[in-house]
Amino acid sequence: MSRPAYLEPRTDVAAADDWSTRLVLDELRRYGRPFAAIAVVLLVVAVSLVVFPRATPGTVATVVVLGLLSLLTAMPPLVHRWETAPHRRGLLDQPWRRVPATVAAGGGTWDEDRLLVFAEERTFVLKGTLPEAVGLVLDRQEVFLCGPDEQGRAAVRVPGLCRLYSLRVDETDARPREREPHLVGRPLDDPTVAKSFRGFRWGTRAWVWCVLGATVGAALVVLSLWPLAPAGLVVGGLLITAAAVMTPSTLLVSGLYRQAVAAAESATEWTPVPITLFPWDTDEEVAGLAQLPRGTAVVWFPLPNPDLIANIADTGTVWMAGDGEVVTVGLPRVPALMFAMVHPDRDVPEDLPKPWLLQVLEPSWDGVPALRG
């Protein structure tokens, strides 16, 4: 089987103006700010319940629940702050540079990786955390680099991934790790894909979150009935309502994940398929016209992954595991998976309304050239 082509950023414009770099920056910004506001509101409400009302079992339970929700909703803003640091520091004002690189052998800590970079001006070592990208660097023997700056900070991108890695110059010596040969075979025989698949399987249990939310809400309501705790009744009622509203969508998604998991487990090889993406709009799902071995088909991506959609848009190829109406989509060595729905013998997508939950979760694809109208 032929080796896959991977997404690569443009090297003729400032890194911040490259469409695939903007895709991840915009996604982080879109989720970071609203979640930060929600986290602050939840924290303020929790603190006010600690200070003002009389302590009751219902009030105490409400404070705990609001505190946990505030902590969870604070995670996206923290990720946004961390991953957009190169942009704030001005590293992305310069173009990406394609430089030979490999993974350094040893020398790092358990949570740290090191890259040996062979830039034109000098050879140096960068250290940081990029566990999911190590296999790609070993395979491709190159990275895309901005920096280092005067403080030794650099931004790195790896072929096949949109995400940014913030690394620092390491002055210690290093030797290159032996290159690992990689043959494209059964999808789940790829260690990187297999690791992603373990998380992908949790999609079959998406309904658990609705059950958990309803259970917590019901417990809050019961604890708040006597002594009466209005805050607990309100928060519990909102949790129960949210769980009820989300249940139909999560049951639908869980069923699609089950079919995709079965397709991936039964697949004996990847199937690379040429595809042309349709223009995208906010009320439509990402879809494309694929040339499958058995004929033309429209392929939908209900929960599109930014890394995979960017690869598809850049290379014009979708890598499938399975041959049914629901398949798993991924890419060798890339730590990302998503499911797709295949409708054979069609050349235009169905005009169906997108579920509201998918509209909320899906990022904007306006910046992807292949998806513009």
From TrEMBL:
Protein's name in the database: Uncharacterized protein
Top-level division of the source organism's lineage: Bacteria
Species the sequence originates in: Saccharothrix carnea
Record keywords: Membrane, Transmembrane, Transmembrane helix
Record-annotated membrane-spanning stretches: 35-52, 58-79, 206-226, 232-253
